[in-house]
Please model this.
Amino acid sequence: MQYKRSSALFAQAEKVIPGGVNSPVRAFGAVGGTPIFIKKAHGPYLIDEDDNQYIDYINSWGPMILGHAFQPVVDAVVEKTKLGTSFGTPTEIETKIAELAVSMVPNIDKIRFVNSGTEACMSAVRLARGFTGKDKIIKFGGCYHGHSDSFLIQAGSGAVTFGSPNSPGVTKGTAKDTLLARFNDLENVEALIQANLNEIACIIIEPVAGNMGCIPPKPNFLQGLRDLCTQHNILLIFDEVMTGFRLSKGGVQQLFGVKADIVCFGKVIGGGLPVGAFAAREEIMNHLAPLGPVYQAGTLSGNPLAMAAGLAMLQALNNDNEIYRRLEEKTAYLHNGMSKVLTESNIVHTINRVGSMISVHFSDTPVVDFQSAADGNNETFKKFFHGLLDRGIYIAPSAFETWFITDALSYDDLDKTIEVVGKVAKTL
Ligand code: PLP
Model:
């Protein structure tokens, strides 16, 4: 493959956009090389500016669960566009998608739409603080909830202590209100709660983590968090930006039967347009302006094109009773196939999978939290990534990302992927 035009476009972009990209991971910093510029996409395929075609396992980092240029979404957006692109007034379609989302997801009465997953999580935390009258939050190392200040926090000096900023620009004052816990470690969470009794407003978690590879919760971990939250009057926030409408119609709450107090959405709920949302039972949501004192707003929130895309996507998922079974089967097929060919080449690996989220770790120990994810062999991952890319398989350019499986993938696509993984394994 040659990437001539991509390289030229990247050089041009670097002059006017910091690092040439509008979101850092796209710059290939973790794997080296020059980012590929995509021209168009259809079904499970991406086509770049040099006319190379790839089987896509990024899928816009999650939204394209039914493939690229999914016809009902494209049609809905095109039709809406003809009527005007934004009014800044209420529109009927906002209620339609809200009704559908509320009917699909357990334990929520009301939902508010925003423009990104970051906004959803940031607003959910503000709402939790406003509702409980407490300031501190607990988040988990390796979980990502967008780039708002409260979340850009790393572990402080001791295990049961305050976090510290992991980006310049985040103040120490902000960092002191975010406590960092270990994923899948209930005792660690309990110790944090005990050390900060009556000060914690919420625990926010990716209930199936997808930002350190795919990491499932251990049995009883989520229920344990639920029990601790109930006991200590803490709100449990499930950040389902990745998992919402992907792992089941009702997300992780439905999949594992654990109740959250607030749920955040993004990605799939927008069908590929910029949409986020947060939702909860009425008592909590009524604390939001204009009904309640917690302020939250947005010029483009509930934008008609975004709502049209999201509604078409949720309708397609809601009307297909086989979709989550099909996705699971395809992902399991890929898992088994990749495991087989990696093992044949004696490549040390661990594959994690929940539903249509899957990740390959070059590690021989179970990957259960951030540390065990970080222990994977990054040099092997880099070679693996470029080996796949050069043979037409596009996975995320970082060992800490989940692969997203789309229903548009055929078994031929999966077989081709497994064959390529086998070839690349021989070069590692
Ligand atoms: N929460 C999770 C779990 C995510 O994976 C992401 C983004 O990848 C976000 C929040 C932030 O969403 P956005 O990038 O739309 O701001």
Summary: DSSP finds 14 helices and 16 strands in the chain. Residues 209 and 215 are 5 Å apart (CA to CA). The two ends are 19 Å apart (CA to CA). The mean pLDDT is 96.
